[in-house]
Specification:
single chain; alpha+beta; 3-stranded antiparallel beta sheet; 8 strands; Ant_C; DNA binding; DNA-binding protein
């Protein structure tokens, strides 16, 4: 008689409501963070579902949630790193619990060697996730520059003046250097994620209330002091050579 060692076929998922509970944050804030990161192309916008809202006392106590499957758990790490970096390890632990529950066959079906292999696999996964958390923390630091600016950062117009260039010319050069780009149908320049992480650019976000009660979000690329110094060493010498 053969022993069945087939792993559970149940999908492993985590939704935005569960993430909000893990990081002790408001669910609406978690949803907004997911939507902002998806708009920037940092993560993929996950599918939605309706689940029971235990905090609601209304007859229709359903709430819309974003659902992350196992293939997109990295995106959930980025969301938590943006919201509350100190809770990222807690999210890692929760994913491991879900994976262990889905992957572990009945104990009677496991041999001693299989138990050892399972333990080794779990330890390797834990070490890999710890390393991944460090990478995510570095990205979280870069995300902070999306909404704040440091001393010495200037907009593209003032950066062009410092480099003795026309603003349009500088924007064109930065675009060709893969520093900035425009979204499809958008008018504002947006900084590439890797340039934010390098600390040469920042993305300033301003929320402006409108008379009708809605809010308008305006974005502006800023060049940091570090970025301006780098451009002075790369772009300006080329301009001087072209003029001679």
């Amino acid at each position: 008689m053969e022993h069945c060692n087939t792993l559970s076929a149940l999908p492993i998922t985590m939704n935005s409501r569960e993430i909000a509970d893990l990081v002790k944050s408001n669910h609406a804030d978690v949803r907004r963070s997911i939507e902002r990161l998806a708009e920037r192309g940092v993560i993929q916008l996950p599918p939605t579902a309706k689940v029971q809202d235990k905090q609601s006392f209304s007859p229709n106590n359903k709430t819309m949630v974003y659902v992350f499957d196992h293939a997109h758990k990295r995106d959930s790490f980025i969301v938590v790193a943006q919201l509350s970096p100190e809770f990222t390890a807690r999210l890692v632990d929760r994913w491991q619990e879900l994976e262990a529950a889905a992957a572990a066959p009945a104990p009677v079906e496991l041999s001693r060697m299989q138990l050892i292999e399972l333990a080794l696999s779990a330890e390797q996964e834990r070490l890999a996730l710890e390393q991944h958390v460090k990478v995510i923390q570095a990205k979280a630091d870069a995300f902070d520059r999306l909404v704040t600016s440091t001393a010495g950062s200037v907009n593209l117009t003032n950066a062009a003046k410092s480099l003795q260039m026309r603003p349009r010319e500088l924007s064109k050069r930065l675009n060709s250097m893969h520093w900035i780009y425009k979204r499809a149908g958008g008018n504002s320049w947006v900084a590439y994620q890797d340039r934010l992480e390098e600390g040469v650019l920042e993305q300033k976000i301003t929320v402006i209330p409108k008379p009708d009660g809605t809010k308008e979000i305006r974005e502006q690329v800023l060049v940091t002091a570090q970025g301006l110094g780098l451009l002075a060493k790369t772009i300006k010498p080329q301009i001087n050579r072209n003029r001679t």
